[in-house]
């Protein structure tokens, strides 16, 4: 299984052979192999149409709840949740799966349920048709413990923030968490905070002070906030770029949101042209430039 995942990184060196092999693995008999092949194709920016179809098939058809002998039921951690999580990492490229993810919000499998919320959030504005379902989730769910990754209400608030960052229903849930747990936010918190700050949602001066104190922490959300306040902060831009290799979704989302800043565009260009920088980072920077220019061309 690890071999399949590593093909995504090897694809940077020998793209054609690796891409063909990964496409073939999308038809493997084992669901986990198919999922990892789809994920690896995303890493090398390979063709995703069939990969997305495979992920949807696994998410929908994999048995999710298994009965026990005493009549009780247990939740099965497995391929369905992993496939949905992988769809989330594809971001807007997985927009076609939004209706399926909305249906999966009804699942009794907690892993499928929470990963569907998270995936919708990561798809972002392209998942706007999911807003009513996420708002219902926010109102109907009881909070387990604020900031816990298995808390449906908190996760619904994060998902809403990634799609509709100005939604007034999310601030009472997320803002206290941002203030109280600024040094130990979860990944979904980071994505939600990135969207809210990038969209111009204002927090008070105390929040800015906390973020400035957190400057020493290598967390994309903090650098995004710095760039919103200081667009010429080259250290923050370079920190985001250097983290592309280990924090793809957060850093890419942040750089795409901040592309309108000329210093960000310049650092992306410098990164693409610098042969001393890791090839993976240069390729991700090039993709951000390409996609951002395409979006601007349509506007």
Explain what this protein looks like in three dimensions.
With 299 residues, the protein is an all-alpha fold. Helices cover 64% and strands 2% of the residues. The protein has helices spanning 2-10, 15-25, 31-43, 49-61, 79-89, 98-104, 110-123, 131-140, 152-163, 171-180, 187-198, 205-213, 220-229, 234-242, 248-257, 262-273, 279-298; strands at residues 65-67, 73-75. A hairpin with a 5-residue loop joins β1 (65-67) and β2. It starts with a helix and ends with a helix.
Biggest sheet, strands in spatial order?
Answer: 1-2
Q: Total helix count?
A: 17
Rounded average pLDDT = 76
Which percent bin holds the helix content? 55-70%
What percent strand? under 5%
Q: What's the alpha carbon Rg, rounded to whole Å?
A: 20 Å
By DSSP, the count of extended strands is: 2
Ranges where pLDDT stays below 50 over 5 or more residues in a row are 1-13, 66-77
Structural class: mainly alpha
Question: What does the secondary structure layout of this molecule look like, with pairings?
Answer:
Layout: H1 2-10, H2 15-25, H3 31-43, H4 49-61, E1 65-67, E2 73-75, H5 79-89, H6 98-104, H7 110-123, H8 131-140, H9 152-163, H10 171-180, H11 187-198, H12 205-213, H13 220-229, H14 234-242, H15 248-257, H16 262-273, H17 279-298
Antiparallel strand pairs: 1-2
């Amino acid at each position: 299984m690890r071999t399949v995942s590593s093909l995504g990184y090897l694809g940077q060196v020998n793209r054609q052979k690796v891409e063909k092999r990964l496409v073939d693995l999308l038809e493997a008999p084992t669901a986990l192999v198919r999922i990892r092949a789809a994920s690896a194709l995303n890493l090398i920016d390979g063709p995703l149409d069939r990969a997305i179809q495979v992920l949807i098939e696994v998410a929908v058809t994999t048995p999710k709840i298994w009965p026990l002998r005493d009549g009780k039921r247990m939740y099965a951690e497995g391929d369905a949740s992993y496939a949905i999580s992988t769809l989330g990492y594809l971001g807007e490229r997985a927009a076609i799966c939004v209706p399926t993810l909305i249906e999966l919000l009804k699942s009794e499998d907690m892993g499928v349920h929470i990963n569907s919320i998270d995936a919708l959030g990561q798809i972002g504005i392209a998942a706007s048709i999911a807003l009513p379902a996420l708002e219902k989730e926010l109102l109907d769910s009881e909070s387990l413990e604020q900031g816990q990754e298995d808390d449906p209400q908190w996760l619904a608030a994060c998902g809403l923030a990634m799609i509709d960052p100005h939604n007034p229903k999310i601030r009472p849930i997320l803002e206290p968490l941002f203030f109280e747990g600024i040094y130990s936010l979860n990944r979904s918190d980071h994505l939600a905070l990135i969207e809210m700050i990038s969209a111009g949602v204002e927090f008070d001066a105390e929040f800015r002070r906390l973020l400035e104190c957190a400057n020493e922490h290598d967390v994309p959300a903090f650098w995004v906030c710095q760039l919103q306040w200081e667009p010429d902060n080259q250290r923050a831009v370079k920190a985001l770029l250097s983290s592309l290799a280990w924090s793809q979704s957060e850093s890419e989302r942040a750089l795409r949101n901040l592309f309108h800043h000329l210093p960000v565009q310049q650092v992306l260009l410098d990164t693409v042209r610098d042969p001393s920088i890791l090839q993976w980072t240069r390729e991700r920077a090039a993709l951000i430039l390409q996609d951002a220019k395409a979006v601007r061309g349509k506007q």
